[in-house]
Amino acid sequence: MTAKTARSTNKLRCTLAALAAALFLTACQKPLVARVPSDRPAARPRPAIRLPEPPAAPAPTPQQIAAHQLTEEGRKLLAADRSDDAITVLERALSLDTENGRNYYFLGEAWLQKGNFDQAREFNRLAELYLRGNPRWLQSVARQRGRIDAGGP
Questions:
Q1: How many domains does the chain have?
Q2: CA-CA 20 to 30 A from 55: which of 13, 16, 72, 85?
Q3: How far, in whole angstroms, is CA 18 from its chain's centroid?
Q4: Each residue of 64-104: pLDDT tens digit?
Q5: Which residues form the domain of 67?
Q6: Is 38 inside any structural domain?
């Protein structure tokens, strides 16, 4: 390499080093633009949005609790093939809570066991009406309707 080429290369290196140092220093410097105050008042922080809590389910009444216990007793009687006793207990439960869809379902089962398809169909219709918000029970009601329409268990 000639002396002239070496000086040119050194000069280029020094220029590049100075340029890199200048870029580094300007990147660390605070911006020179000052904020200009505006006539608008400073924005107040927005309050957090509070969503209302879903309403709690009302506590069951003593009649509903008793009806539930009787419905469970009726279900056990049905499982023991005691449909006449189950109907008696389930009708008592119905007199305490007329909106208990499970009670209607089990009354449909009892009448189906006895072979009275008209009664079973009516209680199945009422069970579907009162259990319409419960997909799991609606499946059971649909299966029961299929057995009623088929003419037996």
A1: 1
A2: 72
A3: 64
A4: 999 999 999 999 999 999 999 999 999 999 999 999 999 99
A5: 62-150
A6: no
